[in-house]
Amino acid sequence: MVVLPVAALAAALAVSAATAPAAGPEELIVTGTRLAADLQVVPGSASVIDREEIEARNDAVVVDLLRDLPGLHVNQPGAGGVTQVFIRGSEPNFTVFLLDGIRVNDPNNTRGGSFDLATLNLADIERVEIVRGPQSSIYGSDGLAGVVNFISRRGSEALSATADVEAGGDDFLRGTLQVGGPAGRKGDFSLQATRRDDGEAVPGSTYEADTVSGRLHLEPASAVTANVYARYASSDSTTFPEQSGGPGLAVLRDLQRANADDFTLGADADWAINGMWSLQALASLYDRSDEYASPGIAPGDQVPPNGAANDLERRNASLRATVRPSGKVVATLGVDYQRESGESVGYVDFAPDFRVPNNFDLDRDIVGLFAEGRYLPDEQWILQASIRHDDPDEVSGETTGKVGAVYALANGTTRLRANWGSGFKLPSFFALGSPLVGEPDLRPETSSSLEAGLTQLLMSGAAEVSVTLFDNEYRDLIDFDPDTFRNVNRDKVTTRGVELAGTWSAAPDLRLRAHATYTHIDVKDSDRELQQRPDWRGGAALRWAPARDWLLDLDWLYVGTVLDSSIPTGILELDAWNRVDLRLSWMATPRLRLAIAVDNLLDADYQEAIGFPAAGVRPRFGVRYLLGGAP
Q1: The whole model's pTM is what?
Q2: Within 13 Å, how many C-alpha atoms sit on residue 141's CB side?
Q3: Does residue 400 contact residue 137 with C-beta atoms inside 8 Å?
Q4: Which pLDDT band holds residue 26 (cuts at 50, 70, 90)?
Q5: Under DSSP, is residue 70 helix (H, G, I), strand (E, B) or coil?
């Protein structure tokens, strides 16, 4: 049924509501463009989740934080299961994932280069920026459907330290120590260490991680700024294998076990040569090592026991020049270089004492040339365009672009925007190199997208509503062909739909928001339907400060029916579901914060994957104490 989410959203929008308070300050966005700008200036559809929002929502994991956004569907069957993010019905590996601008997609994995969000800790994140639509003209390969950038926390003007401890049902436990303060001339630093145990809310599904991350911001001269980022994460997890039927239906009761180590290191610098010219440079390293061992899936011999030990290293460097000849024009031109190497030592046990190796060792170099410009002909128009040519070794080059416009009506309360873009994705190392299913002659997957949107301020800026229409086309999608037992390019898929969002600041201490997304997916020349993608999803939330130093956040999420499959059952349609989460916090003193959260407050019974039951009601209790610095 789609009546419930549509009716709820309509009611909310009738008295309100897009994704940020209309009367608040403009937000600078650095994702999806090389020309940082206010969020209102960006022609494409973008969302920003800042630290204030992260604190108020008090989610247990990053996955839950992203569920509250239009156009994004997030799926995670248990803490140890693989997290998938579908932007506008696309594949999870069609999104570029960044940590402080450092790409962390993994081309070694069997999912074609996606990223598992479970490794991230909310305590380490200052803000999240999400830009929908093709992003290859900015980021090159992988940017078919969008980009998600997790930006780490910065230090403060005075030295301070904060300790966070949270415990909850099903043995959930999280502890964070954060230290920040000044560094050098007008600089600052931040250092976080987190220990997290997600417990076992879903039988057999566990996740434990230790993370250390830091950020150093320096201004060594009046015209120079620089940043250094570093992060290390180590994780261990267990789960029933995907499509096994989970704890409810799996015939084999042995668990899949995995561990991983992730390391990111990056630095960037900006030198303002004069009032017109500036230079930007950045360099980064991403290194990931992971292992997994799966017992396979029964009945039948569809998925025998298998496993692998993988190593990925990616190095990236970029240099560009930006020119501002007038207040109406800004443009940038540059070059970047990326080298990534992937190695996997895998196996498949087709029978006792019959182990078949599944190893590969590949690398590739990519040189990219890019340009981007923004033109403001008058106070009403904003025009923006970008173009990029990527030249991977041993593969034909790819040229992608993006063109967009924003038009503000004279009264300033209505904004129209339109955006077109194209994207591409190189085949993953696994798709190319696996001796069992790989195909070295696979073509890159490509996309093109058109979107148009309207944003309207209401009630003297106290409320805002937005509507976005989108039309995406994906070509040469890589899929497994059971007849040849190889990966092939074959599918052409279109996704079309609408995103609705709204907020209403009803009073200084009361804010309402709502969102809904409808997505129609069509696999051309086929009656096949893609799985794990609902037609309808939506939600609403209330944030209320009932008294000084108190804050209540109540969230409702609706996800429509989806198709899923498992070896024991074949393809099934999973029921739609509703979930309500409650958070309440109290600043007991200027240094002490107490919080309580109840996940799945109404104990909704649903499945995100066949045989994997949702976690039931789970309370969490948290304490934060400011150890030093001004409260």
Answers
A1: 0.93
A2: 31
A3: yes
A4: low
A5: coil
